[in-house]
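Example record

The entry below shows one chain as it appears in the dataset: sequence first, then structure tokens.
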Amino acid sequence: MFPQLSEKLQEVFKELRGHGTLSEANIESALRQVRLALLEADVDFQVAKRFITQVKEKALGETVLRSITPGQQVVKIFHDELSALLGGDAAPLRIEDRTRILIVGLNGSGKTTSSAKLARLLQKQGKSPRLVALDLQRPAAIHQLATLGKEIDVPVFTPGPGEGDVQRAAAAALQDEKPTDIDIFDTAGRQELDESLIQELKELKDFLEPQEILLVVDAATGQQAVSVATHFNDALAITGIVLTKLDGDARGGAALSMREVTGRPIKFAGTGEKLDQFEVFVPERLAGRILGMGDVIGLVEKAAEAVEAEDAARLERKLRTASFDFNDFLAQFKMMRRMGPLENVLGMLPGMSNMQGLSIDEKQLKRTEAIVLSMTKKERTHPDILNARRRQRIARGSGCTVTEVNDLLRRFDQMRKMMKSAGKMKNMLKQLQKLHR
């Protein structure tokens, strides 16, 4: 997430931490580099200027300059100010009885997909959402929303054939009473802002009186995204922002500028194409990831969602008794995949976000999975029986070479030996504890 900005900031902080003591000149030099990094990342000029001024004021205080670890103190100041710039605390949705959420934005920003992702997230929270298709400009958008709703088992209201009046379609949706808590209205966009779009949305807002108006913005569009957000906010008084494509090569400027320029919180972030790659935007956690501190809390939450308690307990027993086999390997593999792209998962670990070679080869992971799936159940349970003939059959079945099969078996054997060693060490420690009682 924002790799270029993150890398440059971490280089600056590494240099700062290298100084035993800090002077005003050291801090001034570091702040100049940070300012350049922010501007290169497409952060609004005025936003970058205010941010640097606030950091400088705190970093030049006596508490920092006379601290035993001044470099660490400056990094903490950056983290706190970056969290504040991104909005401080997470901003929850305003949920009431029969809540109405209006989704707005330009074409291509990801409105329809974000509507479905939001519905899925609310569904997981125990709510009963409904999707309402109001993009009458593009019939394909109505079909797409209906398909996505079916995929996540959420009801979708679609207007009648030939319906061209948005307000009439919205009225029909409200009359079609369903046992749902929240209605999510997916509206039409344009290639660029125009008066007809704004007028249509204003009238729709007045008619629906929604509790939330969420603007969907593509994080990769940089300063244009900030301009779009400003115009939508001036016209509709939006209540929050949904940033999409944060998993791409976005330079980060849109996210860092949006809250400051519009005064509206970023409420959600899309972190991938899949419907479960959508999360509540927590400024403090994103600040930590940008500065290389990771997001351990977010990682734990992902793991809790992906791993069933019973599966985790069974795996823990297997690891403890060193009886781990390829069936367990496959189960663990699937658990990891449910947590999302492995690059994103590893990027949440402190110090891993900019580590060289972090890129995960998804094709290699699929080949590994194919090799294991090409084994019989008996072979997965007893890997020791995998002789040359069986390995050749597995290679043919998985579309891999025998060398790749051998490499996987070798790595798996090494892993099992490490587990046995860990088990022996634990037993030895238990014996030592008994001796000291």
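Notes for this example: The longest helix spans residues 402-435. The CA atoms of residues 167 and 204 lie 6 Å apart.
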